[in-house]
Amino acid sequence: MMRLVRSAMIFVPLGALLAAPAAAQPPAVEAPFYVEGAVAATLGHASGSLFGAELGYRMNDTWELFVEGGHMGNITTADAERRAGLIGAALGGTANVVQKGNYGDIGVRYRLLAGRRWHPYATAGLGVISVDTETELSGSAVEVVLGADLSGHVTKTFLVLGAGVTTPVSGRWFADLSYRYGRIFPNSGAIDEDQGVNTQRVQAAIGLAF
C-alpha cells in the first residue's frame, strides 16, 4: 500500500510538469480574416529590399484566399544592364540602369499538417507587376530618347510560388516567415526580345487575425 502511495506522489507531480509546457503554449490563431505587413530581402542578379502587405480570408481548415501587394526596390536584370551598356558605349560614355517593381497578386494558401505552435503552408498567386526602369547616361553630351526597355513603366504578368510557417505571438497577433519565388513574364508587345525575370525573397511578417 505504501508503495502505491509513493508511486502516486511521484507520478502525479511529474504528469503536471509534463503538461505545463503544452498549456503554456500560445493558442492557435483561428479567425476568418487576417492582415499582415511584411519586409523582405530580394535575391537574384541584383539584391534589394521589399515592403508589402497581405489580406487573407480563411475558407476552411485547409484553404485560405489572399491578396497581396508591395514594392520591390531593385530587380535590375542582366539583360537591362547589357542593353544600357551598349547605348552608353555607342555614345562614348557609361550607362547606369535601375529597375523597381510595384506588384499585386491574388492567390491561395494550402495549410499543411500543423502542430499547436507551428502552422506550415504552401502558397501560389497570380497577378501583375509594374516594372519601373530608369537609366542614367553619363560622359556624353548627346541626348537620347530611350525605349520602354530602359525608361518608363511596363506592366507584366507576375506568378508567385512559395512556402512558409506561421506561429502565434500574443493574442490574435502572429508571425509569418516565408520564402517566395516570383516569375516576371516577358512582355514582348512592349519590349522587343524581352526576357523573363526570376525573383526570390526571404520574407518576415507580423500579422493580426480578426
Descriptive notes:
The protein has 2 helices and 8 strands. The chain is of the alpha+beta class and 210 residues long. It has a single domain, classed as Porin, CATH 2.40.160.20. An 8-stranded antiparallel beta barrel has the order 1-2-3-4-5-6-7-8. The longest helix is centred in the first third of the chain and has 23 residues. It is elongated, with a radius of gyration of 25 Å. The N and C termini lie far apart (55 Å). The N terminus is likely disordered.
Q: What is the level 1 CATH name? A: Mainly Beta
What separation lies between the terminal Cα atoms?
55 Å
Structural class: alpha+beta
| CATH architectural name | Beta Barrel
Helix-strand topology string = HEEEHEEEEE
Topology, element by element:
Blueprint lengths: L1 H23 L8 E11 L4 E11 L4 E10 L5 H13 L3 E18 L7 E20 L13 E19 L2 E12 L12 E13 L1
Antiparallel strand pairs: 1-2, 1-8, 2-3, 3-4, 4-5, 5-6, 6-7, 7-8
Please describe the structure with a list of short key phrases separated by commas or semicolons.
about 210 residues; alpha+beta; Porin; 8-stranded antiparallel beta barrel; about 15% helix; about 55% strand; elongated; disordered N terminus
